[in-house]
Amino acid sequence: MTFSTLKYYLLLAVIHQSCITRKPVDPLHYTGNTVILGHGGGFAGTEEEYRLLENGQLYHRALLNEPFKLLKSKTKKRSGKWIAEFDSLSQIHTSFNVPGNTYKFVVFKKDTLENRVVWSSQNREIDHRITQFYERFSDYWIYDKPQN
User: Fold this and answer.
1) pLDDT tens-digit profile of 46-57?
2) Whole-prediction pTM
């Protein structure tokens, strides 16, 4: 085998590896860093939840008893930036649970500890950095609006 043939096969292997998509995982049992947020309430009392995994996969479920579905997948680098910002917000509200008729929530997880922050649009006590993160995350990840 010549050196140029070896380079050709190596190049094919690299291209093949880069085209392989990541396999979906179960977001409920994912052990890496995760952004968890959603909204719920209203007449039907339903709750939608989104989970962005460290590997760049975004999952969604419309009802709590439904399985998660993979919505989209972006780069690990991109999701890492969002997760790092999300983690920086985790100490703002260590306990906040003031839902209204409809509400939004974020869940901060660290190992086995979980901190759920819940608010409604009428709440003025929720830190604006959390609500801004929620809106920007929704625009970018869920509604595909470009970032400013």
Assistant:
1) 999 999 999 999
2) 0.80
